[in-house]
Amino acid sequence: MRILAFALLSLATVLAQPVKRDPLRHYYALHFPQEHPHTTTHAQSIANSLGVRYEGPVGELQTYFLVSAPITSNLSKRDTNDPTVEAFWAHKQKRSLMARDEIRSSAWDAVKSIDKQVLKRLHKRGPIPGWDKRAPVKLKGPEILADAQKSLHITDPGFPQQWHLVNQQYPGKDINVVDVWKQGVTGNGSTVVILDDGLDYESQDLAANFFAEGSYDFNDHTPFPKPRLWDDSHGTRCAGQIAAVKNDVCGIGIAYNSRVAGVRILSGDITDADEAAALNYKYQDNDIYSCSWGPSDDGEKMEAPVGMLADAFQNGVKNGRGGKGSVFVFATGNGAASGDNCNFDGYTNSIYTITVGAIDHTDNHPPYSESCSAQLVVTYSSGGGEYIYTTNVGTSVCTNSHSGTSAAAPNAAGIFALVLGVRPDLTWRDMQHLCVQTAEPIQLEDKDWKRLPSGRIYNHKFGYGRLNTLALIEAARAFESVNIQTHLELSVILNKAAIPDSSGAKHRVALKSAITVTEEMIKAAGLLRLEHVTATVDIEHQQRGNIVINLQSPHMVESELATERPRDLSPDGIRDWKFMSVKHWDENPVGDWTLLVYDVSHPEMTGNLLKWTLTLFGE
């Protein structure tokens, strides 16, 4: 009977999956600026006009549709002179000649653009080899652990090594979850999906909590996200941190009674269309999206989700979980040793994501974890010779070497699964508010901690502090959901304002540009309470890594938007890049917001500020 049930589940899962990609075809995304009842018909009509095959909508996005055409021998996948693209724009220009065909005419009026899908690679946020050479510490104080094992009937042999759950060496330096478990809060009713390199759903530590219906493999376009490559262990390890079953195998997950799904996207190149579909995959069933990946952490790249990817994030928070919003959790990145900063990553500096950095088993900031003003909180990962113990690929295989911010993000996702188990009605913004309100400041001797008008303190290395599971749960029980989101946007255009040279200067000299926010503007926007602040900056510069940008609020609170990146030699400047800060949460926004732009090295390399836009988001 169990075999039959699994067979029926497998069949149902297969029937509900996206269409498999054909490697012998080019794929294109048609974009309609607005959804309307005939969008699907219009997309099919355009496909017929172009002589290409209609494939269907892009995931849950109702304004993007895939079409495909056979690959010809004389056309490469990256050829800019693509006949399908050229035919599309030719049809757009001649649409007036189609007036006799009402459907086709309205279709060509409605469609906005076509985008040829090109494969790209997303990067896992695993460890940086060789950065940590210290010997592991020896644990002591078994009485702390024994109480948890006895009271909760934990028999998992690896539980004593899970110091992030119960830290015997440094009591209190853990996620503070045991008392939450004692309340019966173990993740029931919550589902976390791991967007990664697969998930070993046959592992004895994960099988009972695996959610097949919420899973898919977008690399090989098969129903189940089975790890296939030699290094496809990253996602399984993350899944174990969240939902490893309480049994006699390895350790336990933070939310050990939650469901865990796997969406495989990191085991090969992927198109924007498939990534967008992955970000919204089964978003009525999958609650939390745990993402330990992003652009390369080399201190040189500057990449963001745009177009349909940006729309996928907005669609997730607007329509996911029945309108309460998908909870996106992203790791800050491991590029700190390369001078990288998570504000140069458009995934981690998005207002729609909870960006999580790492601390080690002594609450110290490890040398790999990136800092930025978009970082909301931190939680535990590797450092000082210690690593995260978790599930690995194999029937009953474990590992004691999981590390990097890759391990911090799923720890946070597991904590959030416990929160949603108590309050499934919370919105994506509610979760961010709870993080801000309950995070615990640590390492208070660090000079970057700054007192804010809200009464809280903030640090670009630690955000608002470390996650405290018990504090989050207690606050969530009584939390009143915030009102709808609104925003105020203001811009200033400059006449190529030269950025003064500060290289070698004892005191840096900034180019200053201010935008004034009035009480009347705030009232007109209905902005009752400030949350995220973004500054979209347009700078031309001969060496991008020389630029430092701060944003100063009316209360003289400064957010470090862009830090110097010595490896970034790009001559492309910072063109219409959106920086984000959570440092001004709950601050009164009335007054002058001042952008401070510095040029800190190589005086022969110059640049100008062209324009910038301030956007205030809030309740």
From TrEMBL:
Its main location: membrane. SUPFAM superfamilies: Galactose-binding domain-like, Subtilisin-like. InterPro entries: Galactose-bd-like_sf, Kexin/furin, P_dom, Peptidase_S8/S53_dom, Peptidase_S8/S53_dom_sf, Peptidase_S8_His-AS, Peptidase_S8_Ser-AS, Peptidase_S8_subtilisin-rel. Residues 1-16 form the signal peptide. GO terms for cellular component: Golgi membrane; trans-Golgi network. GO terms for molecular function: serine-type endopeptidase activity. GO terms for biological process: peptide pheromone maturation; protein processing. Keywords: Calcium, Glycoprotein, Hydrolase, Membrane, Protease, Serine protease, Signal, Transmembrane, Transmembrane helix, Zymogen. It is found in: Membrane. Gene3D superfamilies: Galactose-binding domain-like, Peptidase S8/S53 domain. The keyword Membrane applies. Residues 482-619 form the P/Homo B domain. The keyword Calcium applies. The active site is at residues 196, 234, 406. PANTHER family: NEUROENDOCRINE CONVERTASE 1, PROPROTEIN CONVERTASE SUBTILISIN/KEXIN-RELATED. Belongs to the peptidase S8 family. Furin subfamily. This is P/Homo B domain-containing protein. It comes from Phycomyces blakesleeanus (strain ATCC 8743b / DSM 1359 / FGSC 10004 / NBRC 33097 / NRRL 1555). The lineage of its organism: Eukaryota, Fungi, Fungi incertae sedis, Mucoromycota, Mucoromycotina.
